[in-house]
Amino acid sequence: MDTINEVKKQEVYIEKIKEINKGKTLKYHILTMGCQLNENDSEKLCGMLENMGYVKTDNFQEADINLFNTCCVRENAEDKLFGKLGELKRVKEEKGTIIAIGGCMMQEKHITDKIKESYPFVDVIFGTHTLYRFPEDLYKALVEKKKQEDILDIDGEIYENLPIKRDSDIKASVTIMNGCNNFCTYCIVPYVRGRERSREPKEIIKEVEELAKKGYKEITLLGQNVNSYLRVEKEKGKSFEEYQGVNSFATLLRAINKIEGIERIRFVSPHPKDFTDDVIEAIRDCDKVCKLIHLPLQSGNTKVLKEMNRRYTKEQYLNLVDKMKAQIPNLTLSTDIIVGFPGETEEEFEDTLDVVKKVKFEQVYMFIYSRRVGTPGDKMENQIPEEIKHKRFDRLKALVESQIEENNQKYVGTIQKVLVEGTSKNNEDMLTGRTDSNKVVIFEGDKKLINQIIDLKIVSEHMWYLKGILTHE
Ligand code: 5AD
Ligand code: SF4
How far is the CA of 272 from the centre of ligand 2 (A)? Predict the structure, then answer.
């Protein structure tokens, strides 16, 4: 069956469940782990559930459906899932809540084996390639009262037009491609998300146009490897339809930049090895593309980078940064770094510190290397002891925090364009928004400023946020 008919078939299951739920107020709770791609998948799952008549709750104990969208990039997510399942056992016994688990972790056999053995009360297990089929799996679990296991080990397809219930009315994520072909040796993603495949340009443009019509101001384009958008299709001669001149990531940025109503465009994550000049030029030319670019470093040492299969050297990374800084005015950078990759020596780790000192990132997402079953990194013999990994992590963290403090000073006294997102979580009387460089700014102002881009004068800095005042009332 083709993907269009598959999605239609699922709409029928959504209607069937809606019919069963008629007249009842049923609730669902969802726990999402991991990256923005997973959050976007969860928005689709929420869309399906709400179309079935379920209402969202933040209290898992009162939910009729408890859904998990899992991540397996690092080990701590596993501990979290098993901890939550332990807590849910009693709710299952007392209330009979349906428990469904999906996402990346379910693509790992040792995990699904453990669930079946230790948590036999779980009703539905589905993977990354069967998310679209959640309505059918849920229906069968509800009606046939049989456990459902729906996991496929395939390259993966793209399913358009799934229902979606977005978390925000201001900022929206749009997945432009799925999967990854890079096989960095530490990373599990290529094994659980399948091969790289890009959405049709027309589908992406259509989605962003609809978001603009609904009043969304900021779009984040998502993919494991966004700057190789359509690359595999071109290399393998797979068919895709050019639309509004879009045949690459750079041309996609240019096309989205033209969509009226959208005011900010972000994207995660690009790969340094694929950061071609046409992308740099598009970022420079497109006024709506934010000048904060996420450029995952992972390690600052050429030998470690080689072992990681990243396919760039320390010098190539630094040269790329220099080139981008020279060509893109007001460029800021954020990055991902892993410490304690197998074999990393003290001197090699210091190369990472050196790159951090040189680049002066706006933000650094720091990770302790986590062994992932099935990856080449896990089979490497020279694993770094936990204690050393933690010590290196703390050293990196101290450096990053001192740089952030120093960098924040630069904002004080400047005027920043801020997209106002809502009231501050900690103080209802204050509003919160973000700069182009994604810094949180808190300020006093009228609620009617929400969903507008306004000028704020930055008056003070507080490590993780800035304080601002309106430049005119
Ligand atoms: N251990 C630690 N961090 C990892 N990442 C990916 N795999 C691992 C791993 N096995 C980090 C990378 C990636 C980010 C999303 O997660 O830095 O860019
Ligand atoms: Fe993982 Fe590397 Fe692919 Fe990113 S590019 S998802 S780190 S394999």
Answer: 11
Is there a contact between 140 and 146 (Cβ–Cβ < 8 Å)? yes
Ligand closest to CA 225? 2
β pairing state of 466-470 and 440-444: parallel
Ligand 2 centre from 180 Cα, in Å?
6
* Ligand 1 in reach of 298 Cβ (< 6 A): yes
Q: What secondary structure does DSSP assign to 445-456, as a single string?
A: --GGGTT-EEEE
Which candidate, 156, 172, 162, 267, places its Cα nearest to that of 213? 172
Name which residue sits closest to atom 14 of ligand 1, judged by CA.
Answer: 336
State the Cα–Cα distance between residues 43 and 94, nearest whole angstrom.
29
Buried/exposed code over 311-337 (b: 16+ C-beta within 10 A; e: otherwise): ebebeebbebbeebeeebeebbbbbeb
* Ligand 2 center to 21 CA (angstroms): 41
Give 10-residue mean pLDDT values along the chain (473 residues): 92 97 96 96 98 98 97 93 95 94 97 96 97 97 92 93 97 97 97 96 98 98 97 92 97 98 98 98 98 98 98 98 98 98 98 98 97 97 98 98 96 97 92 98 97 97 95 72
How far, in Å, is the centroid of ligand 1 from the Cα of 424?
Answer: 30
Residue in 189, 306, 337 to alter for ligand 2 test, most ligand atoms within 8 A of Cβ: 189
Q: Enumerate domains of the chain plus CATH numbers.
A: 3-150 (3.40.50.12160), 171-408 (3.80.30.20), 415-470 (2.40.50)
Order of strands across the sheet with 332-339? 292-294, 332-339, 363-368
> Distance between CA 69 and CA 42 in Å, rounded?
7
- Report pTM: 0.96
Task: Specify the pLDDT at position 463.
Answer: 87
Expressed in angstroms and rounded, the spacing between residue 74 Cα and the centre of ligand 1 is: 7
d(CA 302, CA 312): 7
Would you state the pLDDT for residue 1? Answer: 64
Report d(CA 103, CA 433) in Å as an integer. Answer: 31
Question: Are the CB atoms for 358 and 386 separated by under 8 Å?
Answer: no
Looking at residue 118, the DSSP 8-state letter turns out to be H
Q: Which residue has the tokens 């959504």?
A: 14
Number of neighbours of residue 472 by Cβ within 10 angstroms: 5
- Could you give the 3-state DSSP secondary structure of residue 289? strand
Residues with CB under 6 A from ligand 2: 180, 182-184, 187, 189-190, 224-225, 271
Half-sphere exposure of 239 (CA within 13 A, CB side): 1
> How many angstroms does the Cα of residue 367 sit away from the middle of ligand 1?
6
- DSSP string computed for 433-473: EEETT--EEEEE--GGGTT-EEEEEEEEE-SS-EEEEES--
Cβ 336 under 6 angstroms from ligand 1: yes
pLDDT of residue 426: 86
